[in-house]
Amino acid sequence: DAMVIQNPRYQVTQFGKPVTLSCSQTLNHNVMYWYQQKSSQAPKLLFHYYDKDFNNEADTPDNFQSRRPNTSFCFLDIRSPGLGDAAMYLCATSTMVTRGPLGLAGAGYEQYFGPGTRLTVT
Amino acid sequence: AQSVTQLDSHVSVSEGTPVLLRCNYSSSYSPSLFWYVQHPNKGLQLLLKYTSAATLVKGINGFEAEFKKSETSFHLTKPSAHMSDAAEYFCVVGRGSYIPTFGRGTSLIVHP
User: Fold this and answer.
1) Would you call A40 an interface residue with chain B, using a CB distance cutoff of 8 Å?
2) Which of A42, A114, B42, B99 could hold A4 in an S-S bridge, CB 3.0 to 4.6 Å?
């Protein structure tokens, strides 16, 4: 089945030790998103890619970086994790988003989410 | 600009009774609206979506939602709750510049 895969499902890292979370998709979607979700809160968008175009949310800390080497894979790098970065990290994809004169435009296509990676910082 | 308000942070029902999760939206465009469900320690799963076709939308697991433009609402309903419906539910609006906007979520609690 076509799907969004996140590895690992659970990640424990030490305070200040860099960590990388990965996401892969077999849906061939052109948009990929990374969200941070803390307990009892809605997912918070960190950044998204339209193909290889990277779009950072204004309030995403510099500590968070991302790479998308090809359509299928996307990585989230946390350069120096703090205790406040402990959260669930969700990857999502979407399709058929087109670029129009006003920028990225969507026709209302849904997102497909991976199962998430639970990050613990000790 | 777009926004979404989920009117209840928690809804508690008994198994076998109806479920109503409320969502109001605002959007500069004709909106696309979605409901997602999230079980503990899992990703989000699409329940249903409205994209300007039929105003009554049927989804998975017996859920449905009705788009009411005059009320700017997109409430989620189910005639009879099951224990497995206990989860977090998110109402999402997305149209135009496609960065979807999430509601804060509603926790559905189902009592035996």
Assistant:
1) yes
2) A114
Are the Cβ atoms of A43 and B102 closer than 8 angstroms?
yes
Report d(CA A42, CA B89) in Å as an integer.
10
How many beta carbons lie within 10 A of that of residue A2, not counting itself? Answer: 10
With H, G, I as helix, E, B as strand and everything else as coil, classify residue A53: strand
- Output the pLDDT for position B1: 72
pLDDT at position B95 over 90: no
For B16-60, the pLDDT digits (tens) are 999 999 999 987 777 888 999 999 988 999 999 887 778 899 999
Q: Which two tokens stand for residue B36?
A: 């997602």
**b/e map A66-82, b = 16+ CB within 10 Å:** bebeebbebbbebeebe
**What mean pLDDT do residues A13-30 have?**
95
Cβ-Cβ pairs closer than 8 A, A with B, add up to 68
